[in-house]
Amino acid sequence: MDTLFARQQHLLALTSTEHIRSLMYEIKWDKRLLSIRGSRGVGKTTLILQYIKLNYPITTREALYCSLDSIYFSNHTLVELASQFQLTGGKRLFLDEVHKYDNWSREVKEIYDSFPELKVVISGSSLLKILNADADLSRRCRPYLMHGLSFVEYLEFYHDLRFPSYPLNELLENAGDICIKVNQQFVPIREFRNYLQAGYYPFFDGEDREEYNLTIENIINFIIDQEIPLLRGIEPGQARKIKALLRFCASSKPYEVDITRLGRLLELSRPSVLNYLNALNDAQLLNLLYADVNSIKKLQKPDKIYIQNNNLLQILSYDQMPEIGTARETFAVQQLMRRHRVEYGKQHGDFLVDGKWLFEVGGPDKSFSQIADIPNSYVLSDDLLYPIGAKLPLWLIGLEK
Q1: Average pLDDT over residues 332-339
Q2: What are the φ and ψ backbone dihedral angles of 342, each rounded to 5 degrees?
Q3: Which of these three, 146, 181, 210, is where a domain ends?
Q4: Which residues of 117-136 are buried (b: 16+ CB within 10 A; e: fewer)?
Q5: Per residue, what are the HEC states of the chain?
């Protein structure tokens, strides 16, 4: 165990606490068992190490971070580690990459039941079905899902521009005042465009766009080649078709996606296409929208399919610029789905949010014709600095963390 503590000290020394994600303050860290899931690259490990560094000295023996892909676990079990850790005064155990350890859920349950004074944090792929794992963790574990950077977090990370955390209702009600405050500090449209190109993942160095794009490509390949087969039981040989499916979604306008056509093009059955779409959705590579989330059935086809974020969309479009309408809607869905229930707006508008707000997304000339006379309806428009009545700048919703 001394090796694990020595490794932790080294990692903590290298961890910066200059920028802290808003999720840090939302997590109920005092829970006996909590989970942090998220796609590769969104910053789960950094968040955990920052928490330890902010709350314990680097030489602490009360908190221990372990990545379960460590060679240490080739001849040690989680239960053994937890037992030794508590005997030496340990209080908080952080288990990262849990999906890389066989039978992790059963051993975590045993730790929970056997060591009631020990607090445990588990972290891993967004594909993890923590609440439906082999062991019943649903009544024990408090789950959190970590996303990439929102627009307002991007501004803080890369430009040290800090704004309050606005809830959506406040952004809508006080759009004018908020836009004035933002425009007094910087030109939001320019930075918003930069964010759509390279800003969702918190590892861009601000200069090497090619390296950033290559890292995202590696993330996509890792998820499809390794995580989806491991965590969804899909044959590794199907990775090529899953990648083709993802690229097809990136090259098609959301409203043009057709499940039957996809099946024919990829030589896949309808259930297989839907199974792969759901896996890509869980892996945070796609966002699937339905007209009525309360009546979703296991094999119901989504009404709209979006690439999960604009940085992914840019990479998957290769040398072509993404279609501007697709890029606008992709951002709106990515941002709104972080905290809200988003449904396809059917005949009126693009998106219905929390069953309350209706949004139509478009350019600066977008009219209200589709949502005229509908209460709580708004147009989210590109290339606006200030609202014009209920026509709001698209970037504005990115100020919700």
Answers
A1: 96
A2: -115, 125
A3: 146
A4: ebbbbbbbbbbbebeebebe
A5: CHHHHHHHHHHHHHCCCCCCCHHHHCCCCCCCEEEEEECCCCCHHHHHHHHHHHHCCCCCCCEEEEECCCHHHHCCCHHHHHHHHHHCCCCEEEEECHHHCCCHHHHHHHHHHHCCCCEEEEEEECCCCHHHCCCCCCCCCEEEEECCCCHHHHHHHHHCCCCCCCCHHHHHHCHHHHHHHHHCCCCHHHHHHHHHHCCCCCCCCCCCHHHHHHHHHHHHHHHHHHHHHHHHCCCHHHHHHHHHHHHHHHHCCHHHCCHHHHHHHHCCCHHHHHHHHHHHHHCCCEEEECCCHHHCCCCCCCCEEEECCHHHHHHHCCCCCCCHHHHHHHHHHHHHCCCCCEEECCCCCCEEECCCEEEEEECCCCCCCCCCCCCCEEEEECCCCCCECCEEEHHHHHHCC
Residues 221 and 317 in one domain: yes
What is the reported pTM? 0.92
At position 335, the amino acid (one-letter code) is Q
- In tens, the pLDDT along 191-226 reads 999 999 999 999 988 778 899 999 999 999 999 999
Q: Residue 36's domain is classified under what CATH number? A: 3.40.50.300
Torsion of Cα atoms, 219 then 223 then 224 then 226, to 10°: 120
**What integer best gives the mean pLDDT of the chain?**
91
Asked if pLDDT for residue 134 goes beyond 70, the answer is: no
Do 2 and 111 contact (CB within 8 A), yes or no? no
Look at residues 391, 348, 284, 351 and name the one whose alpha carbon lies nearest to residue 40. Answer: 284
Distance CA 278, CA 299 (A): 9
Give CA–CA dist 206/77, Å, rounded.
Answer: 41
Among 22-26, 282-286, 316-320, the minimum mean pLDDT is found in 316-320
Backbone angles phi, psi at 387, to 5 degrees: -70, 150
Of the candidates 87, 113, 146, which is a domain's last residue?
Answer: 146
The number of CA neighbours under 13 Å toward the Cβ of 89 is: 3
| Shared domain check, 171 and 93 | no
Query: For the segment 61-84, what is each residue's pLDDT rounded down to a tens digit?
Result: 999 999 999 999 999 999 999 999
Amino acid symbol at 347: Q
Half-sphere exposure of 372 (CA within 13 A, CB side): 5
- 300: containing domain: 152-399
